[in-house]
Structure formats: C-alpha cells, structure tokens
Amino acid sequence: MIGMKAEKLRLTLLKDRLGISRLEKTIPTPVRAEKKGFCSIRRATEELSIVCPQKI
What we know:
Blueprint: E1 18-23, E2 40-43, E3 48-53
Antiparallel strand pairs: 1-3, 2-3
C-alpha cells in the first residue's frame, strides 16, 4: 500500500447466526429472505447470493 492511505473499518457484531446461500442466477428471489431483519441479497451475472439469519 505504498502511497495509499489506510482506512479504518468498523465492524458490528450481530446476535443472529447467519446463513449464506449461493443459488442459480435464474431463480427468483425467495420472498422469505426479504422479510426478517438483516438480509443481503446480491444478484451477479453468474449467481444469486443471499445472507440472512439461519432461522428463516
């Protein structure tokens, strides 16, 4: 990192256990993944990735 300024990264510890799913790019987003607390849904050209609480 010569010539670059390092930035501090702030992390927050969540209480929930999270699950990570990597799905086919063509399937629709599961509705249940959109309804409960923290959830990250990302669609890329090659996959659909979902991070959400395991208890869903």
